[in-house]
Amino acid sequence: MGWFQEVRKHLVNEQGMTQGKVDQCYFYKKGVHLVVHVDDFLLTGDETEVAKVRKALWSKFEMSGGPVDEYYGLRIKVKKADGEITIDCEKYIEKTMDKLRIPRKKRNTPMQYDQDLPKREGDVDKKLQQQYRRLVGSAMHPAVTCRPDVAAAVRELSSHLQNPGLIHLQAAIRVMQYLWTTKHFALTFSRGSDDCAATTFYGTCDAAHNVTHDAKGITGWACLLCGAAISWKCRAQPITALSSTEAELIAIDDAVRELRYLHKLLEKFGQQVRTPTWIGQDNMSTIAIIRNGRFSARTKHATMRYRHVGDLVKAGRPSKGVILTHWTNDGRPIDKRNKGGSPRDPPGRDHGPSAPATWA
What we know:
Layout: H1 2-14, E1 18-19, E2 26-29, E3 32-37, E4 40-45, H2 47-60, E5 70-71, E6 74-79, E7 84-88, H3 90-99, H4 126-145, H5 151-158, H6 166-181, E8 187-190, H7 196-199, E9 202-208, E10 218-225, E11 228-236, H8 244-268, E12 277-281, H9 284-292, H10 307-315, E13 322-327, E14 333-334
Parallel strand pairs: 9-12, 12-13
Antiparallel strand pairs: 1-2, 2-3, 3-4, 5-6, 6-7, 7-8, 9-10, 10-11, 13-14
């Protein structure tokens, strides 16, 4: 903490930057945005202003740097002429495969569709446990930084860290082999209009009911901007849902909280969200409850704490509100006001979101 306080003191007191309230590791001032991760700094903004901040940092701390090509183990490619930025972890995956001596075998999916990983009882194999934890930890980094397609698989693997067996070890190896097979996969952000937050920012969420060993549901959501995911989650729900509708309510409640957080963060980057944000959901019962706020005898177990999503749908305040729409399994939104049920895309998109199929 001492190092971070030293950095904060320099940036705020000496360089006149403001520490973000939404994210404590984010600092900004006119023309410059800076993110700190331990001793790694990432800056963007006006080239002249960025150069001034870098010069001051170099005079204060012993450091090196230049145009970004790698950050936090991720490869970053900036193609200014094409208006495109890609983020991948190909180098990290290759290095990890060598380090853990994992056979390079092509896998088209992170897990088998009907894979069952039961909770293991009995004595713990310490050697196998250590190997398993290294594999899961290695897969965790891509899952939370640039590969949302393995988030569901890594979540499942992480629930067996205490007492894994051979079947769990093989499943973890398969995830790493899938990452190696698809190492060229990257998050690709494309330059849009100056008002990209209003035209390309939207979310999608889903839930699975009663699927964990202790009858919990699974929440999955993703938030996208400029053509790629900027935030996502796949995790077991903290409480036991009594129906699939309640599981969906828990999921959309979590997704909307993230959207509100991202609204605030985008505003600090000068991207004002002037229109309600679209969020896709495929459960019609959930949509009906949120839109009309009526809990029937069959849904009264869904507690009042999820009403705040309905409040945001009805808010009508551009920067606060959300638009809840029905999206079919092929990822396309459906506007039921169209009598023919014809697809209607969210603003700025010509197709629906590419949320991982493993979340369904």
